[in-house]
Amino acid sequence: MEMKTNLKKLPNIKSGGKGSLIKDIIRNPMSYLLILPAVLYTIIFGYLTLPYMVIAFQKFNFRTGIFNSAWVGFKNFEFFFKSASAATVTWNTIRLNCLFIFFVTVFSITLSILLNEIRNKWFVKITQSTFLFPHFISWVIVSYIIYTLFSYNYGIVNRILGVFSIEPVSWYMTPKPWTSILVGMRVWQATGMSVVIYLAAITGIDGSLYEAAEIDGANRWLQIKFITLPLVMPTVAILTLLSIGKIMYGDFGMFWAIIGDNGILYPTADVIDTYVFRALRLSGDPSQAMAVGLFQAAVGFVLVYTTNRIVKKSFSEGALF
Amino acid sequence: MKKTSVFNTINYTMITLFSLFCALPLVLLLMVSVTDEKSIIKNGYQFLPEKFSLEAYKMIFTGGHDIFNSYLITIFVTVVGTLAAVMITSMAAYTLANKNVKHRDTLSLFFFFTMVFNGGIVPWYIICVKLGLRNNILALIIPSLIFNPFNLFLVRNYMKGIPDSLRESALIDGAGDIRIAFQIYLPLSTPVLAAISLFYGLAYWNNWWNAIMLVEKSNLYPLQYYLLKLKSELTMLTDLQGSSAVLSTITMPTESLKMATALITIGPIILLYPYLQRYFVKGLMIGSVKG
Predict the structure, then answer these.
(1) Measured between CB atoms, does A5 come within 8 Å of chain B?
(2) Residue A319 pLDDT class (50, 70, 90 cuts)
(3) What is d(CA A101, CA A307) in angstroms, rounded to the nearest whole number?
(4) CATH classification at residue B102
(5) B69 and B153 in one domain?
(6) d(Cα A320, Cα A304) in Å, to the nearest integer?
(7) Number of domains into which chain A is organized
(8) Nearest to A34 by CA among B185, B38, B220
């Protein structure tokens, strides 16, 4: 009996077109049962979030829900844009993300080109493992590391300053240096991962190109400049484009773990995501938080679209869509 | 000849320097955790402790600390969450790789869409609250973590490489899709399942987002969130208010205990690192072959 029903599934070619979804479900009930949990999860935590975006234009009340909350037009946006924080958090998010992208890319390309030139296999293996390790460390631990470096009383940096008889700095009360500290920790955490990707792209380059260049008398530097660099550029472009898409999104985990609610550092280190978090969890107004989130998503979308067009025009292999 | 050796020297030096940059902060953390309390107060944090002491670790492992409870919470959440996540993901991947399912590409798109377009944290939070995912252990397991489309595509791409003839002959032998998935496809996909188990496991282990958003009871704090709370209390007291004299009256964990606590949360990661790295790199490669 069962064999008969199963045999019906076999002739793929005969059935031709796709047919309706319901027919497909009837033909493969068990397959659809297997995918059901993932589908349910995606509907609940993915698709159902979309209608809630309208609360940006409401004064949302948990009890009455989206259908019975009062509409307030652009009032929530006004609140954000009129506040002094709007410019600060937006600028900080974009500025820090640009610095992150720039420094991580420069470091990882340089390191992967250098690693590729090394013939000693175990040296490559050990150093690459060391580069990648910070990727698996949570930002909370990173914040402990920063604390061991910059704590006022016991921190290494203040001790070193002491050796040169420079007055200790209370780092947690001085906003300015935090741009460099954050960029440094980002490079520390993210470079290893990009090195893995770039190194894969570089080892994929056809070896005969280098042989030909050597015969023509090109030294290593010229080979890097005219073969390696141009050929990894598409990979660089794709990765950069992906990060530019997220340029309006501050890494909440990073900023909240390192900066947290230390208001003194906000001028250089507060980003949109930490702002939204505070609006939602501390002042408890989901509508205002949503308005900021919507602004973030809209600008983010425009940025991806434009950069993709620019990349497509200048060299098409790097474009996403 | 000479030119290459100069190049090599510079090359090796630069790579070694960056390796040190990556490793030293963690070495410092380790060193502080085994430094005697008095020498920290006298000399600050140091790479080479004046006096060595394992007191901090003794204090942690003799128990009685909140951290013990947080450790248990994190282990439970990681084990249960990872198992569930791998099940959900691999079952769905089988369907997406099953050529009899005509709408499999539409389904893939259905999952991909939410990776790009979603309402962000505010709607997510409202939905979690409405589902009652607050202040309970499920709030640490289900939202954000239990299913990730990226991992789904990873497994699907791998399963696409399994020859169709296997499924077809099993069908002829009378096996159903569930049996084929569990007895043929999952065992054949062990490498990629190992990779995603590590991804999910790591995500659970390092997660504190769910805790900060959805949990207020301190007996439900996972490790990372516990550490975060601990640190913010300490920086508040010592660095923001200047004087550390007030500290002596409050029962605060000592400096080395703090670092030891941070360090033992990375312990499992260090132990698993060789596997972690291998599968991580493999996973990235499978993922980048077919995006």
Answers:
(1) no
(2) low
(3) 14
(4) 1.10.3720.10
(5) yes
(6) 9
(7) 2
(8) B185
Of the residues A61, A76, A91, the one at which a domain ends: A76
Domain holding A114: CATH number? Answer: 1.10.3720.10
- Which has more pLDDT, A180 or A6? A180
Cβ pair B120:A297 closer than 8 A:
yes
Residue A43: domain span = 19-76
Say if A9 falls within a structural domain: no
Predicted ipTM of the assembly: 0.86
State how far the alpha carbon of A234 is from the alpha carbons of A195, A198, B63, B136, in Å: 15, 10, 53, 46
Q: Which residues pair with A211 in a beta bridge?
A: none
**B66 and B50 in contact (C-beta within 8 Å)?**
no
Any domain includes B15 = no
Nearest CA in chain B to A235: B288
Each residue of A147-186: pLDDT tens digit? 889 988 888 898 889 889 888 888 888 999 999 999 999 9
Weakest mean pLDDT among A43-52, A79-88, A178-187, B245-254: B245-254
Residues B133, B47 within the same domain: no
The CB density around residue B90, as the number of other CB atoms within 10 Å, is: 26
Query: Does A90 share its domain with A198?
Result: yes
The total domain count for chain B is: 2
Residue A250, pLDDT above cutoff 70: yes
Collect all residues with Cβ–Cβ distance below 8 Å to A243 and sequence separation of at least 6.
A97, A100, A101
Distance CA A260, CA A240 (A): 28
Give the per-residue pLDDT at A48.
Answer: 94
Residue A221 makes CB contacts below 8 A (sequence gap 6+) with: none
State the nearest Cα–Cα gap between A154 and chain B, in angstroms. Answer: 4
Q: What are the chain B neighbours of A280 within 8 Å (beta carbons)?
A: 121-122, 125
